[in-house]
Amino acid sequence: MNINLFNWFEQHHNYAYSFLRIFVGGALFMRGLLFISDPHKLTQLAGSEQFFWMYSYIAIVHLVGGLLLVIGLFTRLAALIQIPILLGAVFFVHLSKGFLASGQSLELSVLVLFLLIVFFLFGSGDWSFDMKRNKK
């Protein structure tokens, strides 16, 4: 039984890639929802009105880009527009706090950044609208 299960997983390993894309897209979408659902928190994060536009942009990109990643539509573009945001999170927000900081930590941001780069380079995977669109 176990060998059959492992054989099935080996034959369908490409689904794991799609599951990762769906999970990361969903997580980024939820991050965007958190930013938009609490305008006070967004203002607090921005620190001043001059940065409010930047956090609004981040929220919108996470919402739209996350949703596109979940459904696998324009996956490379959805990943590409979020890479600069994650670079900013890694180098300007989390790097000074170091690894294993409380709350959102450096290693989580680096992991999401790495996965976005993978999705940008390799595309959406089998379970995606991109794949269905390319087959037609």
Automatic annotation (TrEMBL):
Presence of keyword Transmembrane: yes
Membrane-spanning residues: 15-36, 51-70, 77-96, 108-129
Main location: membrane
UniProt entry keywords in alphabetical sequence: Cell membrane, Membrane, Transmembrane, Transmembrane helix
Membrane association type: Multi-pass membrane protein
Superkingdom of this protein's organism: Bacteria
Cellular localization per UniProt: Cell membrane
GO cellular component term of the entry, any: plasma membrane
InterPro entries: DoxX, DoxX-like_oxidoreductase
Presence of keyword Cell membrane: yes
PANTHER family: INNER MEMBRANE PROTEIN YPHA-RELATED, OXIDOREDUCTASE CATD-RELATED
Family listed: Belongs to the DoxX family.
Stated name of the protein: DoxX family protein
Provenance organism: Ignavibacterium album
